[in-house]
Amino acid sequence: MTRTVLGYLFTVEWAVYVGGALFMELVWRPLQRHVPPAQTGALCNAMGRRYRWLALGSLGLIAATAIAWQVAGGPTLRASGVAGGGAAAEWRIAGLVAVWVVLVALVAAMGLLVHPRSHARHRPGEDSDELRRLRLRSIRFMDVLLRVELGVALAGALVVAWPLGSAPGLAL
Amino acid sequence: MTATWVQVLASYLHLLAVAVYVGGSVAMEFVLGPAQRFVPPAQAQILGQRSADRFLVLVWGSLVLFPVSGMLLFFSLSDQHLITHGDMLSTSEGRTLLAMMVLWAVLVANGVLITFVFRPRLVSRAKAQGGGARVAGHLESMQRAATWVSRLTRIDLAVALVVVLLGASLAYGKGIL
Asked: Which among B16, B30, B93, B144 is least buried, having the fewest CB atoms inside 10 angstroms?
C-alpha cells in the first residue's frame, strides 16, 4: 500500500510538472498572439509568479517522494515481484536525478533571474533604451529556456514511464 | 530484462495523457485562472474562451489517448486475461480496472456536457429581438453555464486524480478494490 501511495504521488507530481510545461507551450504561448502587449506583460508577470511556485513545489515534492520511495525499498517490480529494482533500476535513478537537477536549475534561473528581468521597471536616471533592450533580451532568453525546459521535462517523463525493472535497451 | 518498444511507447503515451489532463487542469485552474484578474473583464472573457477552446482540444486528445495507450499497455503486459476470462469482478485487479473504465466514462460524459452544452451557451451572442428582458435572460443563462463549467472542471480534476490512484495501484501492486 505504501508503494502504491508513493507511486501515485510520484506520478501526479510529474504529471503536474510536465502538464504545466505543456500547457504553457500549447495553450498560453499561442494565446499571447491575441492579447495586447501591455496585457500580455501583466498576465506573464502574474502567471510567471504562480507557475514558478507550482514548478518548484512539484520538483520539491518529486524529490521528497523519490527519497521516501527509496527508504521504503524502492518500487516493487510488478512483473517479477522483486523489490528495489536491482541493477536495472540504477540507470533510471541516475537519469531521473540528472533530469531533476537540470529542471531545478532551469526553473530557478527562469523564476529568479530571467523572468524578473523581463519585467524590470524603469528607475530614475536609468537609460530607458537600455532597459528595453534588457527586457527584450530577457524575453527571448526566457522563450529559449522554456523550450529547453519542456524538452528536458518530456525526456524525464520517458524515464519515469519506462517499464519498471527494464534496462534502457529495447527488446525488438 | 529489456522492455518491448510497445511497452515503452504505451507507458509514455499513458503518462503524457495523464500529464496533459491533470497538469493542464491544474495550470488552467491555478495559474491562468487567477491571472485573468489582472486584465480588463472583457479581455479576460476573450482570454478565457480562447484558452478553453485550445485546452479542450488537448483534453479530448488525452481522453482518446487514455484507453488506447492503456489497452496497448495492458496487452503488452499480457494482462488481457482480466477482461477475457471473466476476472473483471472476481479479482482486485479486474475490479480496479473496471472502476477506471467507469470513471473514464464519467470524464467523457462531463467533457461532452462542457463541449457541446455549456460552452456553446457561453460563446453565444444575445439576439437583439425581444429587448432588455431577453438580453438579461441570455446573460443569466451564460452565468449559469459558466458556473456549471467551473463545477464540472473541478469534478473532472478530482475524478482524474482518483483514476491515477487506481492506475498506480495496478502499476505498483495488484489493485485496491
From this structure: B144
**If DSSP codes are grouped into helix, strand and coil, which group holds residue A84?**
coil
Query: How far B52 CA sits from the closest chain A CA (Å)?
Result: 9
Enumerate the H helices of A72-172 as residue ranges: 86-108, 115-118, 128-161
Give the three-class secondary structure for A168.
Answer: strand
Residue with the larger pLDDT of the pair A30 and A128: A30
Q: How many CB atoms lie within 10 A of CB B78?
A: 8
State whether B30 and A19 contact (CB < 8 Å).
no
Tell me which of B31, B46, B53 to substitute to probe the interface with A (most A C-beta atoms closer than 10 Å).
Answer: B31
Cβ atoms of B96 and B175 within 8 Å: the answer is yes
Contact (Cβ atoms closer than 8 angstroms) between residue A19 and residue B21: yes
Q: What is the ipTM of this complex?
A: 0.82
Sort A165 into a burial class: Cβ within 10 Å, 0-12 / 13-18 / 19+.
Answer: buried
Option in A7, A154, A167 nearest B1 (CB) = A167
- Highest mean pLDDT: which range of A73-87, B33-47, B119-133: B33-47
Contact present, B123 and B85 (Cβ < 8 Å): no
Distance in Å, alpha carbon of A135 to nearest chain B alpha carbon: 20
Alpha carbons A93 and A101: distance in angstroms, whole number: 12
Indicate yes or no: CB of A26 within 8 angstroms of CB of B58.
yes
A:43-82 residues touching chain B, CB 8 A cutoff: 43, 45-47, 50-51, 54, 75-76, 78-80
Across A156-170, B38-52, B127-141, the highest mean pLDDT is recorded for B38-52
Model pLDDT for residues A14-42, shown as the tens digit of each residue: 899 999 989 988 888 888 888 887 788 88
**B87-137: per-residue pLDDT in tens?**
777 788 888 888 999 999 999 999 999 998 888 887 776 555 666 777 777
